[in-house]
Amino acid sequence: MSDTPVLTGAPLAGGCQxxxxxxxVEGETGRASICWCxxxxxxxxxPFGALVTVKVADLAWTRGQRSTFQSSDAVKRxxxxxxxxxxxxxxxxxxxDLAVFAFDDPSRVEPAVQLAxxxxxxxxxxxxxxxxxxxxxxxxxxxxxxxxxxxxx
Length: 153
Known about the structure:
With about 150 residues, the protein is mostly beta strands. The protein has one domain (about 10-120): Beta Complex (Metal Binding Protein, Guanine Nucleotide Exchange Factor, Chain A), CATH 2.170.150.70. Helices cover about 5% and strands about 30% of the residues. It is built from 1 helix and 10 strands; from the N terminus they run E-E-E-H-E-E-E-E-E-E-E. It has one helix at about 40-45; strands spanning about 10-15, 20-25, 30-35, 50-55, 60-65, 65-70, 75-80, 85-90, 95-100, 115. The strands form 2 sheets. The protein has a 7-stranded mixed β-sheet with strand order 6-7-8-9-4-3-10. The longest helix is centred in the N-terminal third of the chain and has 7 residues, at about 40-45. The model has no long low-confidence stretch (mean pLDDT about 90).
């Protein structure tokens, strides 16, 4: 795998679900990854953590500040203390990994490598075979979202 940047040019912005914490990245990103380790599964409350490396110097916290939890002797994890959204994986003084799905447009940050695949649940291979139910007519149609919009406000 190459360590070639996955994104250059237009800045990337993102933040937490409630909007209390926002960030902006200027400059290149490093390679994005999916990590299947148990610590990432717990931190993201999902089957994997999707992360992309950026230089700390290229990252600006534009609203609020993240809280952190020392998840191991080598890593701190950042999150919003208000809504709990996972935001960072902090392992270096000059680089930081940001949660891909915290970006306003996560489709711009496509993972290039998988890590700790031994932690991937066997049922993940069959997700495409599961029936798909359309959202129309379901309970989600009546929900009023209080999620912060995927843009600066």
